[in-house]
Specification:
about 35% strand, 3 helices, alpha/beta, about 180 residues
Length: about 180
């Protein structure tokens, strides 16, 4: 099972609304929020998504830490061992905290300098560009490439980029594109 920590304000649900159904297309999802425990999709859970305001203490696990734009902390952060980090580049506070923690992180945004960006967007489809190699939670390396995205729901570019970054880091094969 791939553990995914989404950190930011508990009322910031924009990424969760797009992420849960997208992940469910690639395996069952268990979702934990401070006031909710929910199963999404069929079959055995492949993903565990924990939506929290602070980075929890994690023992004996690896996974993905995604800092939402609403993530903010006045305290230094500790990145759980074995966790890959991603954030949206608009959150300069998260970038500074990750730098101070000595954590390598990838970004997903609208600018071509981001690790994952949009190269084209059309009704019902998009093409994303992975600008640099990234490592998956299983240790595999995904080389730069273009990724097609078939859109089956109304998502913003921001949501699409976050979802696709999580899918890439989780090791979901992008060879045939993603469906969101």
């Amino acid at each position: 099972m791939t553990d995914i920590l989404l950190c930011g304000k508990s009322n910031d649900q924009s990424i969760v609304k797009a992420l849960l159904p997208a992940l469910a297309r690639y395996g069952g999802v268990r979702y934990i929020h401070p006031e909710l425990l929910r199963k999404v999709g069929n079959g055995e859970a492949r993903f565990l998504v924990c939506d929290c305001e602070r980075i929890p203490k994690v023992e004996g696990s690896s996974g993905i830490l995604f800092l939402k734009n609403s993530f903010d902390s006045d305290m230094p952060i500790a990145i759980p061992d074995g966790f890959l980090c991603a954030f949206e580049p608009q959150n300069q506070r998260a970038a500074a905290l990750l730098r101070a923690a000595g954590a390598a992180a990838v970004t997903c945004g609208m600018c071509a300098k981001e690790t994952l960006s949009i190269s084209s967007l059309d009704y019902g489809a998009a093409a994303l560009s992975l600008q640099r190699s990234i490592t998956t939670v299983s240790g595999d390396v995904v080389e730069p490439r273009d990724i097609t995205v078939e859109l089956h729901s109304a998502v913003s570019p921001r949501q699409m980029l976050a979802v696709c970054m999580v899918l890439l880091m989780a090791g979901v094969d992008s060879s045939y594109g993603y469906v969101i």
